[in-house]
TrEMBL record:
One Pfam family of this chain: MFS_1
Superkingdom of origin: Bacteria
The protein's name: Nitrate/nitrite transporter
Keyword Ligase included in the entry's annotation: no
Membrane topology value: Multi-pass membrane protein
InterPro entries per UniProt: MFS, MFS_dom, MFS_Efflux_Transporters, MFS_trans_sf
Residues in Major facilitator superfamily (MFS) profile domain copies: 12-424
Entry's localization field: Cell membrane
Segments crossing the lipid bilayer: 12-30, 50-71, 83-100, 112-135, 147-166, 172-191, 227-247, 259-279, 291-310, 316-337, 349-375, 395-416
Keyword Cell wall biogenesis/degradation appears in the UniProt entry: no
Keywords attached to this entry: Cell membrane, Membrane, Transmembrane, Transmembrane helix
PANTHER family: CHLORAMPHENICOL EFFLUX PUMP RV0191, PURINE EFFLUX PUMP PBUE
Length: 448
């Protein structure tokens, strides 16, 4: 079993390995979000209603979420490189199939393949971070991984949209498939599971050991705190970027496709700006991570409430505020993986990371489906291209589905946080109340 890199030294080649894995994740995000910017075109191509269109994204996320635990177990057993390569090949096959599909069954199969390949990428890159970088840098590198990966969303929001409105559907998704093959080759050539001389992360566990590791990871309240963190912070931005944001901005809020693409780009840039800040905050204040999470959720809820309560179409400045609030949810969800890292030994880190990663995507798929069902229930619709005909009032009612998910998530965070703090107290680590901690930092005497 290898030891992690020393606190003082980053192994030679670490950034090359991380960069190759990161390129695979960037393109995975491109593949994941490529349908969201093509929602209206997909409705026309496949003659799909809102709920039928939501089926694409729901099945993709369902496959992604259901594979997280098997992928985490496989990661502990086989390492990052094999899974990244296999995932890249599967996603490329899915995009190539989508490029030539003209019927719903073919398109659904394609998105299932994309979801399966996508499931193998992110957690594997996080394992590379743990294997190649000192523990003190893990929070920052995790945030950098998440935010840099979102460049894939810029690629889908700008050049992919340009291709879609130029050469058309088939060339667009063939280009996406080719990009996937390219980064898969890079990963095959440059990714190594561990630094030279470190050997494998550990011996391959037996199936009985796998079961014990998985159960132990889930039973630790720190892992479940990470799961509910990911569940609550990530889903709103994912739903917005993956499917319903672009139609909402164009058909509901009356923005042009170019303006909607620009707002999607702002979404990514804001997330990239927030990521390093959150990484530093988490590293400096590890006992206050849950408060940061709750603050992110509060900002997101307030922004959505302002947009949904606004009479008529929201002004551009308010939409920009909404996009900024949604953007911080992505970096916020990375805190969930930091909970998994700090509360689990390395031998079961893949399993714990997979459990955490389920949270946001389960919440996302439920919300995507819920928004689609409400849209169909309250709108008249009408034939080909129905996704473009839903009015603003229909969208506003549909987006209210999110409040149920937030209520579940915040409850989960508060319950599991209490259990984590009780376990820390038994180990001699006391988390002082926020008011007392602030008073200490300001140099005031403790209150009774």
């Amino acid at each position: 079993m290898s030891s992690p890199p020393t606190e003082a030294r980053i192994p030679r080649g670490a950034f090359l390995v991380w960069g190759a894995g990161l390129s695979a994740y960037v393109i995975a995000v491109l593949q994941r979000t490529s349908l969201g910017v093509a929602g209206i075109s997909a409705a026309e191509r496949f003659d799909a209603s809102a709920s039928a269109l939501a089926t694409f994204a729901v099945l993709q996320l369902l496959v992604y979420a259901s594979l997280q635990i098997p992928v985490g177990v496989a990661l502990d057993r086989f390492g990052s490189k094999r899974l990244i390569v296999v995932g890249g090949l599967v996603m490329s096959l899915g995009q190539a199939l989508l490029a030539v599909s003209t019927t719903m069954p073919g398109a659904i199969t394609a998105r299932v393949l994309v979801g399966a390949g996508d499931a193998m990428t992110f957690v594997c890159v996080l394992r590379l971070v743990v294997a190649w970088f000192p523990a003190r840098l893990n929070p920052l590198m995790t945030q950098l991984t998440g935010l840099t990966g979102q460049l894939g969303q810029i690629l889908s929001a700008i050049p992919l949209v340009a291709l879609l409105h130029g050469p058309g559907w088939t060339p667009t998704y063939l280009v996406a498939a080719a990009a996937g093959l390219f980064v898969t080759v890079l990963a095959f050539v440059f990714v190594r599971d561990t630094p030279p001389g470190h050997g494998p992360l550990r011996r391959s566990p037996t199936m009985r050991e796998v079961g014990r590791q998985l159960a132990a990871a889930f039973m630790h309240p720190g892992t479940r705190l990470g799961l509910f963190t990911h569940f609550t912070t990530q889903f709103s931005g994912t739903v917005f970027a993956l499917l319903w944001g672009f139609p909402f901005l164009v058909s509901g809020e009356g923005q042009s496709p170019r303006a909607a693409s620009a707002l999607m780009t702002v979404f990514v840039l804001a997330a990239m700006a927030a990521g390093p800040i959150f990484g530093r905050l988490v590293a400096r204040h590890p006992l206050r991570r849950s408060w940061l999470v709750l603050g992110i959720v509060a900002v997101t809820v307030l922004a959505w409430t302002a947009v949904l309560a606004w009479p008529g179409r929201a002004p551009l400045w308010l939409l920009l505020m909404l996009v900024g609030a949604l953007a911080i949810g992505g970096p916020g969800s990375m805190i969930g993986f930091d909970f998994a890292r700090t509360f689990n030994p390395r031998a079961r880190l893949g399993s714990a990371t997979g459990i955490v990663n389920i949270g946001g995507f389960v919440a996302s798929l439920v919300t995507i489906l819920g928004v689609g069902v409400v849209l169909d229930a309250v709108s008249d619709g009408g034939g080909v291209g129905r996704a473009a005909t839903y009015d603003l009032d229909s969208f506003k009612l549909a987006w209210c589905v999110q409040y149920v998910i937030w209520a579940i998530g915040v409850t989960g965070i508060l319950v599991t946080r209490r259990k984590v703090r009780a376990r820390l107290a038994r180990a001699g680590v006391v988390v002082p109340p926020m008011r007392e901690a602030i008073a200490r930092r300001r140099g005031r005497p403790r209150s009774g």
